[in-house]
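User: Hey, my collaborator sent me this sequence without any context and asked if I could get a structure. I don't really work with proteins. Can you help?
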Amino acid sequence: MPENLGPFEVLRVQPYEARKEYVCPGCNHEIRLGVGHVVIVPTEAPDLRRHWHTPCWEERKHRPPGRS
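Assistant: No problem. I've predicted the 3D structure and written it out in structure-token form, which is a compact way to encode the shape of the chain:
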């Protein structure tokens, strides 16, 4: 999540709630149906929300985006 977007909210998606597939911006791999993950929602720009694998979000500061 770019730092210039300001504060953000982290929403947890439970496996039973994961009904669509997304591409994680942390690793560029697919988040499959039924996989629990997090959604990062910038407070000032909710339309820029992104779905992340939970471990990718937790480790984002230790590696550059797009690296697994």
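In plain terms: The two ends are 16 Å apart (CA to CA). You can pass these tokens on to your collaborator as they are.
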